[in-house]
Design goal:
single chain; alpha/beta; seven-stranded mixed sheet; globular
């Protein structure tokens, strides 16, 4: 056990998860690579949990942060803040929400917490609809709506949460249906739930479930849900903490795969927008954002140094069409991994879109989750020079692949080759 790990265990919580039997300390990075304290170089296919969205040590971002740090780091939202206004303007412009207002937080958890506050205050209801297998953060309120037992340490909650079907396409009672019938069944389930409860405040849903193993419904499910929700005045919160900013390739926002019935009422974001800087936030129609009837501030949300990082990062992403790169390179990577999976009895499914790819593992010859295999592949990939993530729900185990969106074709092939060797050595 190395010294830093021993010190970690002495002062940090036992429940603070660490990857790998021998945890690594990442000391620096460049582009799509990082190095640990022992000097080992890795191709990074997880990006600090989908947070290093463009590249490690991106010159445009580091320059913007350094220049802002030389002026002022922070003043709070009690004072006018030019970088915050400028980033809010850019985000409102690309949000797809009419008359949008933006509130900045420091994380996705806090963003979802704020969205729940807004929705319940606006609707005067503490009932919330959420998806099974979902994950929305680690605060008291967001744990209370998370539909994934592995990340929900308490059943206590300030909210009444009701869970509906649809977030997982290939498991559950509707898995055997075709896409149209699947959507119809999930809509019928939603209508039934609404008939058994007082009017909810909102439905919160990840367009692609992140921690749950990069699962998603057929395109159009949330549009069909939206039609039903509108009839009851129920708001739609799209949790885009992991799916936003073009990661899915086909769309800038994950909700745009379900856009037939219009945009969400609220969108939450975080992770990739700061490229490692601590930024989260909520986008909402003005009437919803402005519904609070008491004072509120954010001490660290929208602080100047993180806003400078976000502005530079978003500008780089748009000017270099990283969404298009995610679509092109991600498409190649998915097909490469599916070709490998077809030869391995323990790979149940390769799914995802863009550079958000999940590989679900099962015990060969069964449909049972294989978390030990996922842990083994994670370890073996690291030994081969590749960092990936893992996730899943109560009956699934999945590898999560989410590189920076500037990933090159050569790097995608290199990572796929390492992952193929790790999978073959496991199965």
């Amino acid at each position: 056990m190395n010294d830093l790990y021993s010190r970690h265990r002495q002062v940090l919580p036992d429940w603070l998860a660490l990857y790998y039997d021998e945890p690594i300390e990442i000391t620096h990075g460049e582009g799509r690579h990082v190095w640990d304290s022992a000097g080992n170089k890795y191709l990074d296919f997880f990006g600090g949990i989908l947070t290093t969205m463009t590249a490690h040590a991106l010159p445009e971002v580091t320059k913007a942060v350094a220049e802002q740090a030389g002026r002022i780091l922070h003043s709070s939202t009690l004072y006018l803040n030019r970088p915050m206004v400028e980033l809010a303007e850019r985000i409102a412009q690309v949000s797809g929400i009419p008359d949008a207002r933006v509130f900045f937080t420091t994380s996705g958890t806090e963003a979802n917490d704020t969205a729940l506050l807004l929705a319940t205050a606006y609707r005067r209801s503490n009932t919330v609809l959420a998806m099974r297998n979902s994950y929305h953060g680690r605060s008291f309120s967001t744990v209370g709506i998370t539909g994934n037992r592995g990340w929900s340490p308490t059943s206590l909650s300030p909210l009444q949460t009701l869970y509906v079907h649809g977030g997982v396409r290939s498991r559950g009672p509707y898995a055997g249906l075709d896409d149209r019938a699947f959507i119809d069944a999930c809509v019928a389930d939603l209508k039934d739930v609404l008939g058994h409860t007082r009017p909810p405040a909102a439905l919160i849903a990840e367009p692609v479930q992140g921690v749950g193993g990069f699962t998603s419904p057929p395109d159009g499910l949330y549009a069909a849900f939206r039609e039903v929700l509108k009839e009851h005045g129920v708001l739609w919160i799209a949790d885009e903490v992991q799916t936003g900013w073009g990661r899915t390739g086909d769309h800038f926002w994950g909700w745009q795969a379900h856009a037939r019935s219009g945009p969400p009422d609220l969108v939450t974001f975080a992770k990739g927008i700061g490229n490692g800087a601590s930024i989260g936030g909520v986008i909402a129609r003005a009437e919803i954002m402005n519904c609070l009837d008491s004072n509120s501030i954010s001490t660290f949300g929208g602080t100047q140094i993180t806003m400078a990082a976000g502005l530079a990062n978003l500008t780089y992403l748009l000017e270099h069409d990283l969404q298009g790169n995610a679509r092109r390179v991600g498409g190649l990577l998915i097909e490469r991994l599916r070709a490998v999976a077809a030869q391995l009895p323990g790979v149940r499914e390769v799914r995802g879109r863009g550079l958000m790819i999940g590989i679900e593992l099962t015990r060969p010859g069964t449909d049972e989750a294989d978390p030990q295999a996922a842990a083994t592949v994670l370890e073996t990939a690291r030994e081969g020079g590749l960092l990936i993530g893992k996730g899943g729900g109560h009956d699934t185990s999945a590898l999560r692949i989410a590189p920076p969106l500037s990933l090159t074709v050569a790097e995608a092939e290199e990572g796929a080759a390492i992952l193929e060797r790790a999978l073959r050595s496991t199965y």
